[in-house]
Amino acid sequence: MKKRGVCIGGYAGCGNFGDDAILEAMIARLTERGVPRDSVTALTGRPRRDRRRFGVRCEDRMNPAAVFRALRQAELFVCGGGSLLQNRTGNRSLGYYLALLRLAKRLGCRVAYFGGVGPVGGERARRRTAETLNQCEQILLRDEDSANLLQKIGVSGVPVRVGADPAFLLPPPPPMRVAFLQRALLGNDPRPYFCVCMRGDTRGSLQTNPLQSADARSALRAAVSRVAALGYFPVFVVADRKKDGFCLHGTQIFPEKAVFYPRDVSELTAVLSAARFTVSCRLHPLILSVAASVPCLGIAENVPDGDSGDNPDGGRSVGRSNGRADPDPAADPKIASFCRAAGVPLLPPDASADDLFAAAVSLSSRPRPDPAPFRKKAEKDLAILCEMLYNEREP
Questions:
Q1: Which of 36-40, 57-61, 304-308, 361-365 has the lowest mean pLDDT?
Q2: What's the pLDDT band for 102 if we cut at 50, 70, 90?
Q3: How many CA atoms lie within 13 A of 32 on its CB side?
Q4: Is 50 exceeded by the pLDDT of residue 315?
């Protein structure tokens, strides 16, 4: 069978708009560079719906026969998304993506990893990750912390490049769509609005949620109330319906607010782009805000103890006993790394209401973030993937 085209595997189509934004941006840039749409295949969570959303062939990411068929036909396999190679959410997730990479290599694909790495806890998990990544032809990372982790766990002999998240390459939303969504959310209210993106735990509880304690949630509610009293309208954005919805129970105290459930990435981008500023516990609302030059404030997320990615011994394994470890006050490295690179202020999860209020108010006087350096890096990343696809296979 003659192999052709590219297969992209990740977490798209599973309810997280960050992963959907990455896939949408990758498809758009690949097709702009001459890759035919009919030669692009994506492994997604809901392939029938996702074929309409992304405009390419989609296969069920959890169907072994469909995955095998897609990889057998592809010339290039890109394991791309957010921080896919991590075992914070359990060793099963890490094992799935490592198996995809190994299977693609065994079926004769050129293999590239595109995203973040870590936290990876446990000596065995780190060894398996290093062995698998050492078989790739190219590793494209979105942050320096991931590159440092790969060096620590023994990844060598593979081209590693630190670029940027592909979501920076999404096109700006049409002005008419922005105006329509503003009218739907605010009605005739003339006040400017700000977006608040809360986060649910990856396992559906508050254990490692940035706002895990009652004091932290109360502090955020108090800060939002004080900002609203200055003449801003709060819009609570749900970036993941499955995991974030339960966090909104505390927003019932606000007499005037809007809760926005975007239907797709373009709606999320449109609402964030018109906000006066954004306060987010999630990474991709921060990325999309910077991409639209909207000031933003990050709230750090707890990571399991010993799994921050900085400890070479890996700390305690996430897969031990009940599959989780106690939360640690350290910030999630992917959010902390991006905030450092973009100059976005980052507060700890236990920040007081006064600190949150002061940081939010100060956003109006900060210079608007510049997305140009990130776009340039992301464009180079996609150019490398196209070179891998079009270059002749080595004998």
A1: 304-308
A2: very high
A3: 12
A4: no
Q: Is 230 exposed, middle or buried (0-12, 13-18, 19+ CB in 10 A)?
A: exposed
DSSP assignment string, 74-136: -SEEEEESSS-B--TT-HHHHHHHHHHHHHHHHTT-EEEEEE-B----SHHHHHHHHHHHTT-
| 386 alpha carbon, distance to own chain's centre | 22
Domains and CATH numbers, the chain: 6-169+374-390 (3.40.50.2000), 175-370 (3.40.50.2000)
CB neighbour list of residue 275: distance below 8 Å, 6 or more residues apart: 192, 193, 194, 195, 235, 289, 294
3-state secondary structure at position 7: strand
Identify the bridge partners of residue 60 per DSSP, sorted by sequence position.
Answer: 44
Sign of CA dihedral 299, 354, 254, 252: positive
d(CA 246, CA 184): 23
Q: Supply the angle between the helices 283-291 and 17-32 in degrees, to the nearest 10.
A: 40
- Side chain identity at 348, as an amino acid letter? P
pLDDT one-digit tens code per residue, 111-139: 999 999 989 999 999 999 999 999 999 99
Distance CA 243, CA 356 (A): 23
Sequence-ordered list of residues with C-beta below 8 angstroms from that of 375, at least 6 positions apart, any chain: 164, 168, 169, 291
Residue type, 215: D
| Helix, strand, coil fractions of the chain, as percent rounded to 5 | 45, 15, 40
Joined together, the tokens standing for residue 99 give 């198996």
pLDDT in tens, 149-175: 999 999 999 999 999 999 999 999 999
Contact 327, 207 (CB under 8 A): yes
Report whether 6 contacts 40 (CB < 8 A).
Answer: yes
The answer to whether the CB of 309 falls within 8 A of the CB of 332 is no
| Residue spans of alpha helices (H) in the chain | 17-32, 47-54, 64-73, 91-106, 123-133, 144-153, 175-186, 214-229, 241-244, 265-273, 283-291, 333-342, 353-362, 372-390
Structure tokens at 123: 């000596």
User: For residues 381 and 164, is the Cβ–Cβ distance under 8 A?
Assistant: yes
